From TrEMBL:
Native organism: Sphingomicrobium lutaoense
The organism's place on the tree of life at top rank: Bacteria
PANTHER family recorded: ABC TRANSPORTER ATP-BINDING PROTEIN, ABC-TYPE MULTIDRUG TRANSPORT SYSTEM, ATPASE COMPONENT
Family matches, as InterPro entries: AAA+_ATPase, ABC_transporter-like_ATP-bd, ABC_transporter-like_CS, ABC_transporter_ATP-binding, P-loop_NTPase
Residues annotated as domain ABC transporter: 7-236
Protein name (record): ABC-2 type transport system ATP-binding protein
Gene3D superfamilies (UniProt xref): P-loop containing nucleotide triphosphate hydrolases
GO molecular function annotations of the record: ATP binding; ATP hydrolysis activity
Amino acid sequence: MTDEPAISIESLSKTYAGGKQALDNVSFEVPRGQIFGLLGPNGAGKSTLINILAGLVTKTSGSATVWGFDIDKSPRNAKRAIGIVPQEILFDPFFTPREALENQAGLYGIAKSERRTDELLEAVRLSDKADAYARTLSGGMKRRLLVAKAMVHSPPILVLDEPTAGVDIDLRQQLWEYVRSLHARGVTVVLTTHYLEEAEELCDRIAIINHGRLIANEATADLLAKAQDKEVVITVNRDLDGLPHHGCFRKVEQVGPCDIAITYSKEEANAGDVVKVLADAGYEMIDIRTREPDLEDVFLRLTRDAA
């Protein structure tokens, strides 16, 4: 394993005709062998960045390398090193999954003796649909077919652009099982998703783009450590006759006749301080439930601050 990154992006910018700037001086690296999350709100520039790496969009300025190949100087090698699963479901309705994979392998110049069509169909659980017309597949099956197409040339990097959009829970789990198996074999995975719990569970490192700018790029654990707000829901011994107030409380909300949800900063207080405020107000605590901050809390705070 070399120390050279799987993907290196330096001062990358893209301005479309008409003046819309999709990317503004973005720089980061994707380490080899990781599952890397690329997050951001709709329109943040994620798909533009992916399309530049795929050779579908021309950058305005900056540079990018894929598996050590400059996308301008060695475009063929760069494209061969990456497999892209697009956000949109794109397929030819008159080809079967087997034909679709065979055609895709042919486009990459892979000899018939070296093609892995049956192996890929089995891996994405489409063996029983191998000879059915693609138009008869469900939405989840079409998504899995796109993953198989992206892997026909055995690229060391797989980019998944919103792969589980519109996919039910069972198929989502099947997809992640396959992605984890690829990762275990050394494939570097770049993931964009709006399901932040997926990114939190799967990704080793996460970058966040907002309004075309990079606003975060850290190990997932370090990013989660930035979340300072914590919530407790406390059940007291009688109906609430008012909401308690304290300087460390960020938000106070009544969520039931005897239930109150209090959000506070972990830097300024702890659960014991919250309980004391309620006790001083004359309430006896019956039950307490806590919610630890998650990636969604960090994401919302960072994108809000950068707006």
